[in-house]
Amino acid sequence: MHANDTDPQSPEVSxxxxxxxxxxxxxxxxxxxxxxxxxxxxxxRERAELDNQRxxxxxxxxxxxxxxxxxxxxxxxxxxxxxxxGLSAAGSEPSPLRDGLELTYKQLLKVAADNGLQxxxxxxxxxxxxxxxxxxxxxxxxxAPDTVVQVFQxxxxxxxxxxxxxxxxVAGA
Length: 173
Fold this sequence. Notes:
CATH topology of the largest domain: Nucleotide Exchange Factor Grpe, Chain A, domain 2
Shape: elongated
Number of domains: 2
CATH class of the largest domain: Mainly Beta
Mean pLDDT: 88
Helix content: 40-55%
Number of strands: 6
Structural class: alpha+beta
Radius of gyration: 38 Å
Strand order of the largest sheet: 1-4-5
Low-confidence stretches: none
């Protein structure tokens, strides 16, 4: 065997050092390209996660703002009940006491409504188990079945979320 002869079973000899360097550069380039792609994907994921966190924070702050006065308004419900009972006891005859009670009740309801409170007074409406709590059933009523015929205690919604259900009597079949 001569030095110029190549053995078919021996490993191939590099064509030239420049070709080896070029192949190494290509391999390095592909490796860097993959690293850049991976970094871009990570950046996009992190950006999406930050965006989701921002949206969650905005939603949480909005909910906190929306229901921050829930306790105060809940504590005022017995006051509404007392004023309502006082108006019922005052009768339907006009009097300064009745007018004062009615004006106070209306003003308090307006302030509460401006803060998201909504009154549930479902007389002659269909029974809604999501907003009403039936305490009894009245048979032989002229009202349609499953209709509220009497309200013992008015209910309230706070920003469309039930704060207290209305206690009602429902017409039977």
